[in-house]
Amino acid sequence: RKEVEQDPGPFNVPEGATVAFNCTYSNSASQSFFWYRQDCRKEPKLLMSVYSSGNEDGRFTAQLNRASQYISLLIRDSKLSDSATYLCVVNKSFNKFYFGSGTKLNVKP
Amino acid sequence: EAGVAQSPRYKIIEKRQSVAFWCNPISGHATLYWYQQILGQGPKLLIQFQNNGVVDDSQLPKDRFSAERLKGVDSTLKIQPAKLEDSAVYLCASSLVQGVNEKLFFGSGTQLSVL
Fold first, then answer.
1. What is the pLDDT of residues A52-103, one digit of tens each?
2. Residue B56 distance to chain A (closest CA, Å)
3. In A, which residues are within 8 Å of B108 by CB distance?
4. Which of A5, A89, A97, A103 should one mutate to test binding to chain B, selecting the residue with the greatest count of B CBs within 10 A?
5. Number of Cβ atoms within 10 Å of the Cβ of A74
6. How do strand A103-108 and strand A84-91 relate by DSSP bridges?
7. Burial bucket for residue B96 (CB in 10 Å: 0-12, 13-18, 19+)
8. Of A7, A66, B50, B101, which one has the greatest count of Cβ atoms within 10 A?
């Protein structure tokens, strides 16, 4: 079983739509959680950390459910510039980072 | 603050040739990682260094891949001999220390094509 699983998409949405991505992780001892964004032919860049209480950064909201081992990312009012692949990342221990395969988002005019 | 530096940006070689990639992490970052990212997949950890010691190399194909981090700063990753399936982007990343909320910072990667 993979450490981190994501729906690969693609999610094709119009500008202004709200879209949500989900991610599950297999190891209950996982300690910290992140969403990274990766543009085509670029390196992954940190979008936001995910905290148990949930956290928001502008149009982006991340949620963590430790009981269900589930992480989500909600994007409101999608922009064309949000088109990218979103990687779910889990830090298990000793800075061991495990990546999902990514969810591709296409925002269309 | 300077980011993670990697070179070369692109490399094209024939199978059975050798190739080397170089990485210089963010200044002061003790942990350095090499990831392999095949098109359409997430990054896969090849090797993790803490200072100049190896923390995890369980997924490194040691018959052909080697890596070193002399003096605990920059690092090289070598493939010898290369196979067609090694075609991928090789990403170097670094993080400050080992901690619960430490974040990864990536270099721009080396895109390797093996013909």
1. 888 999 999 999 999 999 999 999 999 999 999 999 999 887 778 899 999 9
2. 9
3. 42-43
4. A97
5. 15
6. antiparallel
7. middle
8. B50
